[in-house]
Structure formats: structure tokens, C-alpha cells
Amino acid sequence: MLLMSLILELFVFFSTTPVAYAADNIQFVPDGSIKFSTKSTAATTSIRYKTVGFTIARDKRCKSTDCVPQQGGPYGVVRIIQVGEERHSDGSVTTYFNVPVDKVNAALKAAGLDKVSDIDKIWLSSIFQVINGSRPNTDFVTLQSIKNAESWADPNKFRQYYDIPVKVDAEYPVTQIYRTSEGVDR
After folding, report:
1. Which UniProt keywords apply (predicted)?
2. CB-based contacts of 90-94 (< 8 A; 24+ apart in sequence)
3. pTM of the entire predicted model
4. Where are the domains of the chain?
């Protein structure tokens, strides 16, 4: 249940923060995966970036001018899978994603967060790929690598996608109560 709480917090964070994907229509489907959609402004050039996953860590990973999520202790990687896209007449795009729960579990375990019951925050950092750029299918994990990947109009905007704090709340609503033969609720 902590996993579901963590995932829900992760996507609620994105739905209230304008700097990252805004998650709408979060659905837990019977196979255990999570589906969500985002709505954003369509790119105006052929070269653009997309988020393909996140690193998850217990601690912040940004130091001065760079963010290197894979240094400074254990971390996990969770990939998001784009499963569809709709373009709208107002210039926006709705993109649909799927996150397999087993992949999130593996990322939390790799980050040393598999046995956590309640902590203040975890830290997420985006993993990018560039579409129609000079290095297709390349993961850009550090802040400097995505800034230097192409000639972006404003490479400084990428900092907002690193060390994203997500508050983890292990509290979740009780849906079942186990009562012993002695009448004690557990």
C-alpha cells in the first residue's frame, strides 16, 4: 500500500506543479499498472525533448551548477511508457502514459526505499530523450547533458526537472479491518 500511496503522491505532485508533466486521469488498472495523461503546449520546432523516466533517490542530487542523479548514493530508475497522443486545434497535445507497477517497485528497491514506511521526501529527476535531434534514443540523465544536447532557446529551464521533491505519506485510508476472535481490531 505504501507503493500505491507513493505513486499517487508522485502524480498528485505533477498535477499541481506547472513545471513538470501534469498528470490527469490517473487510473489503477486490474493488471497493476498505472495509466495517466498529460496536456501540454505542442512544440513549435521539429527538435524537442520528452521525459522518458525518472530517477528516484532519498536525497537531493543537485550541486551548484549541475545535477547528477546517479551519483551520491543509491537511486532507482522508473521508465514511463507513452501509449498514445492526441493533438488538439488549440495547439495543445494530450499524451497518454503507462507505468508498470513492478518497474516502480524495482526502482524503489534500487533506491533503498523498498522498506520505508514514512519519510519526509524523495527526490525525482527527469530522464530525457531528444526527438529529431543529433543523438536519437540517447538518455540524457544529468542537467548539463540535456542542456548541451541541442541549441535550446532557454537551456536554463531544464533545472526545474531535477531534484523534484515528492512528499511521501504512508497514511492511506483503511479499506478493511481484521478483527481477531477476541474482538481486537488489527
Report:
1. Signal
2. 91/41, 91/42, 92/39, 92/40, 92/41, 92/42, 93/39, 93/40, 93/41, 93/42, 94/37, 94/38, 94/39
3. 0.71
4. 2-167
